[in-house]
Structures are given as structure tokens and as C-alpha cells.
Amino acid sequence: MWLIGIGCAVIVMAGMAPSQNPPPPVSPPAEVNGWQRDATHHTYDYDTIFDYIDGIGEVYRAYNMRTVWAFRYHKPVEPSLTVDIFEMASPEDAYGVFSFERDGEEVRIGQGSDYAAGMLRFWKERFFTVITAERETPEVRQTVLQLGESIADAIPRTAPLPRLLRALPTEGMTSKVPLLFRHSMILNRHFFLANRDILNLSSQVEGVLATYSLGKARVRLVLVQYPVEADAAKAWETFTTAYLREVKRQGVVQTQRGKWTAAKRVGRVLAIVFDAPSRREALKMLEEVRIAREEVRQ
Predict the structure, then answer these.
(1) 168 and 147 in one domain?
(2) What is the CB neighbour count within 10 angstroms for residue 31?
């Protein structure tokens, strides 16, 4: 559970000194239910994030983080609270880091939220916020949620969901929040594809992964959108050479496990179905991908 690990690391390392301390664009309240915010806060950026959450900072870097503001709240005899407000490069990146792991209940804060065992995670616009308590009590839960609502309300705008999500078929989907990724490390932690990057991913590439139930089969659908069509053509060549090999012209292959993989390129978008129970169902899912005209060419 990677992001729960992040929260624990944040609590342990909150005393480390950052190199810069600019004011945050979103200020959490000074007091909530008797918990008082410390007078000072810490700030970390893309280069110093490992000073704060060493060992998992690469997840945030993989989603183009810019800055994180770290706050601490204290109340006598009660668990301390840590608030981390991450500013990402785009709303897509904020959604992406939120989608990396969800392990709790949706509590309707921001544009998507997740609460479990004293930790609240939510995204709104280009911001991703994590609130962590040293231990959970009923009062702590209430305070964490109230603090999250206050921070979410202080973010003046919302953002549309990543457009590539609209291309995903909805029938049979079991992913409540499909994964958005830009790095092979992120994709491989959810669905192992290869030991190397065979999709030519980068900070400018956007991919989504969704899981589907087809009878007893668990099928994955990956969509990847590139900045320009030439990049998608190169990625298609890299992927089909590595994965489809001698049948890459057909775009469909049966794997050694008896499952089926099918792929196609539409302009600057790659669509790939993994682990379908039959050739027909693999190709049918590809046909159901709804790639909008504006996503095809740039």
C-alpha cells in the first residue's frame, strides 16, 4: 500500500528542514476542533522531495509534482495531524497521483477522495492533499474530514476529469478510479508489462489503465495518448516489436497462458487489450474504445 506508506513517512520525517519556504497558494485553517496549526510550515519541491519522503518520492515525481507544503497540527493529549498539500503540474497529474492507490471509502471531499485508518487523500484541480493522523479515534476522524473539507473549499476551481477517461468502455469495468500514468514504473506496479519501457512513456505522455470483468476473466485495457502522431507511431513500433513480434501486423496474439492481447493505433492514441478470454472478445473491446476526434491528431 504505497500511499499509506507515504503518509507514514511524512509523519516520521516532518522535522527535516527544507531548502525553501514560500507561502502556500492554499492555506489550511489555523485551528480545527482544538487542534492548532504550527506557526511554521515546511516546503519541498521536485528536487528536495526525497528529504521529506525518502523511498517513495519517485511516485510524486512521476506525476510532475512541483511543490508540497507540509503542516503540523497539535492538541494536548491527542494524536498529531500532518497536512501535505501537493501542487502538481496539471489537474491530470493531481488525478493521477490520487488514482495510484485507493484503499478506503469515498467521503465526497474535493473531486475524489479516499479515507482509511486516519488518512484522508483527495484531489481538486491541480492539488493533491494528504491528511494523516498518528492514530485514529472518532474525534480524529471527524477532525481530519473537517480539515479536508476546509482545504478543498479553499481551492477556488475544479477541473474536468482527464479526457482520455472518456474513451474507456463502461460496460464490465471494475475500476472505480482508473489509473492514470506517465511512467512505466507506475504502470508496472499495477499491471506488469515489461522490464523496460516498451510504450515510450514520458512526462508529456498520458496513459490510463482500467480493469474489466468478462465472465471469469479479468481483462485490462490500456490507452496511451502521445503529444503528436509521430510519437505514437514510434511507440506502436516499439510495443508491437517487443510484445506482438511476428504477428504485429495482425495486431492480435494469443499468449502462452492462453489469453489474448489485441492492439491498435488511432492517430496519436494506442489502445491495448490484455488477458481477454478469446480473440473475439479482445477485438470487440478494442472496437468499443471511444476515441474522440480531437484526441486523434494534434
Answers:
(1) no
(2) 10
